[in-house]
Specification:
The protein has 282 residues and is an alpha+beta fold. The chain is built from twelve helices and five strands.
Length: 282
């Protein structure tokens, strides 16, 4: 592990990315080029001290999952990401592992969807990227520990979320998420994070274990979904799943018909943002 060069690479990458690139306000009196360490820490789901120690060539050996998170937070190219893994002495992601890097073109797409909440999911249900309106609607994923940013883990073993859905909807999407994870497990049998996730959920959730064994196979499909937001109440939205075959990822986009009551409520969600206004935020 070349700690010195790894730190230099992270500093270069941090200075290249602006707050606007990642949906963060720049704020007044900004004295640094690019992102602050605090902002990188939020985006990557690690502590500020951890980012500082890596940049200064100190600290523990970063794990592949932390390196992948830093690469996503700093919008690294494939070549830059590969160099980072090599400098850290970590095995680079390879065939047989669930792709976790979101392409720059997809991140640009999220930025353009200002009036539609959108998230990017990995084949095993990790929330890899999201736009500001998705955070306002579903909760701020950046405040969750990196290991908890997985919709299947949250559904079966996580804390109650910021929003809720009707029981029938919850049961249907629970089965859908389990069978999608089961399909990913068949496709990526050598992915260690995926194996650990399945083993953890089978051991700690009887509902997950039952669905894993019995639920018929199905994939994510577009549907209508009612989400109860803590401030604006129930919002019914079209939920479209856009597949990205090259990376085996899915872009989930929520929308409402123009001029409808739900479209008005979605705009209110945009105004409210991630503040709780008396409700518990996730």
């Amino acid at each position: 592990m070349d700690r010195h060069e790894l730190g230099r690479l992270l500093v270069r990458a941090r200075r290249r990315v602006s707050p606007a690139d990642v949906g963060m306000p720049a704020g007044p009196r900004r004295r640094v080029a690019g992102l602050r360490r605090e902002e990188v820490a939020i985006l990557a789901g690690v502590s500020v001290d951890y980012v500082t120690r890596i940049e200064q060539g100190r600290g523990a050996h970063p794990s592949p999952s932390v390196l992948a998170s830093l690469a996503r937070a700093l919008r690294m190219s494939d070549d830059e990401r590969r160099e980072m893994f090599d400098l850290a002495g970590a095995p680079s992601p390879r065939d047989g592992h669930v792709p976790m890097l979101v392409r720059a073109s997809i991140l640009r797409l999220l930025e353009r969807l200002e009036d539609q909440p959108a998230v990017v999911l990995s084949a095993k249900g990790d929330v890899l990227a999201w736009n500001p309106l998705a955070a306002a609607l579903l909760g701020d994923f950046s405040v969750q520990p990196l290991t908890q940013r997985n919709i299947v883990r949250q559904r079966f073993s996580g804390e109650p979320g910021r929003v809720s859905v009707p029981e029938e909807e919850a049961q249907r999407t629970a089965a859908q998420s389990v069978t999608s994870l089961r399909a990913a497990s068949a496709k990526y049998p050598d992915d260690p994070d995926l194996r650990r996730l399945v083993a953890e959920l089978r051991a700690h959730s009887t509902e997950f274990a039952r669905l894993w064994d019995d639920a018929p196979s199905q994939v994510w499909r577009s549907h209508r979904k009612t989400i109860t937001h803590p401030t604006v109440g129930a919002v019914t939205l079209d939920c479209d799943a856009l597949e990205l075959p090259e990376t085996d990822q899915t872009v989930i986009v929520y929308s409402a018909a123009p001029g409808s009551r739900d479209a008005d409520l979605l705009q209110l969600v945009k105004v409210v943002g991630t503040q709780s206004l008396g409700a518990d935020a996730r």
